[in-house]
């Protein structure tokens, strides 16, 4: 049995009187790719920020590899990687320098760092331009640098906020392969996405968040059974559970258009 590597207990975030994440109980095991779905404003980014220690919860706890992120943040952070939706890079560093910087922060030994950096630069197709300044990189290339930097210390837990935004199809496929390999090696992968097909193809289990509350979780197959009809796509289930009729119309109009 794989260990639970990500766990939340009654995780809650309030801004003034408004609760934007409400009593979330989640468990993600090693070896699992967990998709975190929900309409705009559901609370996905807020949850990920609490899991990474960037935001303090108003109530409840979050654990990474059994370390409480509020009480033992250094230990928890050493074992995790976070890929934010709006990655910030140092424009005056090259990709290779950036990977070395992140390696140093995670105390990756120097010889290991060089070998891993070369491997990751090669894997993401960045080697030819690895010594150019990041300020000259396209959005997709920057995204790849952030992904490479997230893998350099071989995290046990990786949290990604909308990671496919800005990636071309080949890079999105590469991301999927990389995440599957990480999971195969025993890491817990937590991905928030709007792209339901990606969740359906990539994730072992998904949770659907609406107005800060978990309204369903399970494998895409289990969710299909829960909603009670056969043969539906995860998108149909998502729209049904989140009551997104306006989205359904939008999708239809795009199909017709
Ligand atoms: N600093 C803040 N102060 C007040 N409200 C906030 C703050 N940050 C987020 N919120 C609110 O919390 C709710 C959840 O936001 P969050 O960014 O977590 O949603 P999300 O599911 O990631 O949305 P999206 O898919 O649009 O990125 C939203 O209603 C948002 O307006």
UniProtKB/TrEMBL annotation:
GO terms for molecular function: ATP binding. Coiled coil: none annotated. Residues 6-236 form the ABC transporter domain. Pfam families: ABC_tran. It comes from the Bacteria. Signal peptide: none annotated. Keywords: ATP-binding, Nucleotide-binding, Transport. PANTHER family: ABC TRANSPORTER ATP-BINDING PROTEIN ALBC-RELATED (PTHR42939:SF1). This is ABC transporter ATP-binding protein. It comes from Desulfosporosinus nitroreducens.
């Amino acid at each position: 049995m794989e260990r639970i590597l990500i766990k939340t207990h009654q995780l809650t975030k309030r801004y003034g009187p408004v609760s934007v994440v409400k009593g979330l109980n989640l468990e993600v095991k090693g070896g699992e790719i967990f998709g975190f779905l929900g309409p705009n404003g559901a609370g996905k980014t807020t949850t990920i920020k609490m899991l990474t220690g960037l935001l303090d919860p108003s109530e409840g706890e979050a654990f990474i590899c059994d370390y409480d992120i509020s009480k033992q943040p250094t230990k928890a952070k050493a074992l995790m990687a976070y890929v934010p939706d709006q990655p910030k890079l140092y424009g005056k560093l090259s990709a290779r320098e950036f990977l070395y910087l992140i390696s140093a922060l995670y105390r990756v030994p120097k010889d290991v760092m060089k070998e891993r950096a070369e491997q990751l630069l090669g894997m993401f197709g960045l080697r030819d331009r690895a010594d150019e300044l990041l300020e000259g990189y396209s959005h997709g290339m920057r995204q790849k640098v952030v992904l490479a930097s997230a893998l350099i210390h071989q995290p046990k837990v990786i949290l990604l906020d909308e990671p496919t935004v800005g990636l071309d199809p080949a890079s999105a496929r590469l991301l999927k392969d990389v995440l599957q390999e990480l999971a195969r090696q025993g890491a817990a992968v937590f991905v928030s996405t709007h792209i339901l097909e990606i969740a359906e193809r990539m994730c072992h289990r998904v949770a659907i968040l609406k107005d800060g509350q978990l309204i369903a979780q399970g494998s895409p197959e289990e969710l299909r059974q829960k909603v009670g009809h056969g043969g539906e796509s995860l998108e149909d289930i998502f729209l049904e559970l989140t009551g997104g009729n306006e989205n359904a119309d939008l999708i239809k109009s795009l199909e017709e258009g």
